[in-house]
Amino acid sequence: MTEPVKSGGAVHFAAAALGRCPICTKGKLFKSFLKVAAQCSNCGTDFKAADTGDGPVVFVLLIAGFVTCFGMLYTFLAYNWPAWVHLVVWPLVACVLSLGLMSPLKGLMVAAQLKNRVRD
Ligand SMILES: [Zn+2]
Q1: How far apart are CA 48 and CA 52, in angstroms?
Q2: Centre of ligand 1 from the C-alpha of residue 44, in Å
Q3: Tens digit of each residue's pLDDT (9 = 90 or more) over 12-32
Q4: Cα 19 to middle of ligand 1, angstroms
Q5: For residues 79, 83, 89 and 93, what is the CA-based torsion angle, rounded to 10 degrees?
Q6: Residue 46 Cα, ligand 1 centroid: separation in angstroms?
Q7: How far is the CA of 60 from the centre of ligand 1 (A)?
Q8: CA angle 9, 12, 15 (to 5 degrees)
Q9: What are the structural domain ranges in the chain?
Q10: Ligand 1 centroid vs 59 CA: distance in angstroms?
Q11: Alpha-carbon distance 82 to 75, whole Å?
């Protein structure tokens, strides 16, 4: 049973970004780090119709890539960090940003698909 997200979308999208069900905002959206649960543990909403595919990865790459490249260029030009500092800092920043953004962005895409009644 797939229901569209009810009114008050911002709350539902925020809940999805935090890993909660975008319909009832209480049940779990993920059963593991990036694996979407089959259904909500609280309201029983079916999440199988919402397949995000590679959608969140595009936004993760754009956001993390921009922050990393801008930060690297800025610190290189403004502070003239040595090359080994760039080689240590920016890959770590890229990894942390990518892992940190993946789950919230996937939750947002699932909420958008449920809101727009995406079907297979
Ligand atoms: Zn729910």
Answers
A1: 10
A2: 6
A3: 999 999 999 999 999 999 999
A4: 11
A5: 90
A6: 9
A7: 26
A8: 150
A9: 10-115
A10: 25
A11: 10
